[in-house]
């Protein structure tokens, strides 16, 4: 499971996170997956801002949160 700190994997240049095409440097707190692909295995770790924007797009579904290390 994703239990260690992991960086946000968002690279959407139009993301409200404001990272443009540089990639987001926030710590990921959510795991989402694409729902327009059949494999069901394509998952992304994203921070709160990016995950919410992705979910709003309608092609991602929330898998769960990332447990932060103690
Ligand atoms: Zn992000
Ligand atoms: Zn983003």
Write the layout of secondary structure elements.
Layout lengths: L29 E5 L8 E4 L1 H9 L3 E6 L5
Antiparallel strand pairs: 1-2, 1-3
Bound molecules: zinc ion (2 copies).
One zinc ion binds next to loops.
Task: For this entry, give a set of tags.
single chain, 70 residues, alpha+beta, 1 helix, binds zinc ion
Question: Would you list the SSEs in sequence order as H and E?
Answer: EEHE
Sheet having the most strands: 3 strands, antiparallel
Q: Identify every distinct bound molecule in the structure, by name, code or SMILES.
A: zinc ion
Distance between the termini: 15 Å
Number of helices: 1
Number of strands: 3
Fraction of residues in β-strands: 15-25%
Q: Give the overall form.
A: globular
Radius of gyration: 12 Å
Quaternary state reads single chain
Helicity range: 10-25%
Question: What count of structural domains?
Answer: 1
Average pLDDT works out at 87
Low-confidence stretches: none
Task: Summarize the structure in short.
By secondary structure, the protein is of the alpha+beta class. It is 13% helix and 21% strand. It has one domain (1-70).
What does this structure look like?
The chain is of the alpha+beta class and 70 residues long. The chain has one domain. Helices cover 13% and strands 21% of the residues. It has 1 helix and 3 strands. It has a 3-stranded antiparallel beta sheet. One zinc ion (ZN) binds next to helix 1.
